Amino acid sequence: MNKRITALLLVIVATLLGWMQYQAKDETNGLDNLIKKEGMPDYIGNRMSTSVFDLEGKPEYYAEAEEIKRYEESEKTEFINPLVNLFDKLTALKQWKLSADHAEINAERILTLSGNVTLQALEPTSKLQRIETDHLSVNLTTQDVFTDSEVKSQGLGFTTSGIGLKGNLKQQVATLLKDVKSYIEPTVIKAANEQEKEKQ
């Protein structure tokens, strides 16, 4: 009888020790997931938005995305399916809307968009109305834009396509760099110029 009780107690002790080791492994694995690994973001957020203001308190840009990843060491922020609004410095009104599949802002405040990039003017009288490309970089301080990709742009009275683009959103100017094809509607340009003269 003593041998049976001893054997039963040994089985119970062995089971408890095995269970305790299993629990300890689970806790260790949980801690490993909490420790940041090299190259991993410091912060991840879903369905987030952020507004950035200048030193005078005027809005510079607003960004929202399905997912945002922040890397403190490189001062880089990644956006998945972003929507970015750029503001006019003088009026503090939304001036441009940018969207893409992916975007990244670096420490120099360069916004790099990729995949189905669309830049849309929110002012109906803007000379430059829309830019479509696969890659586009925007300097958020100066609002300079540039790309080496194929570009299609539309404005009041014109549609152009080509390879590469340099421009400035504040000045509503964009220059295609090569293989440029344009379609111009002189009546629309004339009407836009007359409206601009009336404002002055």
TrEMBL record:
Signal sequence bounds: 1-24
UniProt KW Amino-acid biosynthesis keyword: no
InterPro entries membership: LipoPS_assembly_LptC-rel (IPR010664), LPS_export_LptC (IPR052363), LptC (IPR026265)
Highest taxon of source: Bacteria
Subunit structure: Component of the lipopolysaccharide transport and assembly complex. Interacts with LptA and the LptBFG transporter complex.
Lineage: Bacteria, Pseudomonadati, Pseudomonadota, Gammaproteobacteria, Pasteurellales
Pfam families: LptC
Primary subcellular site in the record, as a coarse category: membrane
Cited Gene3D superfamilies: Lipopolysaccharide (LPS) transport protein A like domain (2.60.450.10)
GO CC terms of this entry: outer membrane-bounded periplasmic space; plasma membrane
Localization: Cell inner membrane
One biological process term in Gene Ontology: Gram-negative-bacterium-type cell outer membrane assembly
Species name: Haemophilus parahaemolyticus
Key words, A-Z: Cell inner membrane, Cell membrane, Membrane, Signal, Transmembrane, Transmembrane helix
Signal in keyword set: yes
Annotated membrane topology: Single-pass membrane protein
Function comment: Required for the translocation of lipopolysaccharide (LPS) from the inner membrane to the outer membrane. Involved in the assembly of lipopolysaccharide (LPS). Required for the translocation of LPS from the inner membrane to the outer membrane. Facilitates the transfer of LPS from the inner membrane to the periplasmic protein LptA. Could be a docking site for LptA.
The protein's name: Lipopolysaccharide export system protein LptC
Protein family membership: Belongs to the LptC family.
Gene this chain is encoded by: lptC
PANTHER family: LIPOPOLYSACCHARIDE EXPORT SYSTEM PROTEIN LPTC
Alphabetized GO MF terms: glycolipid transfer activity; lipopolysaccharide transmembrane transporter activity
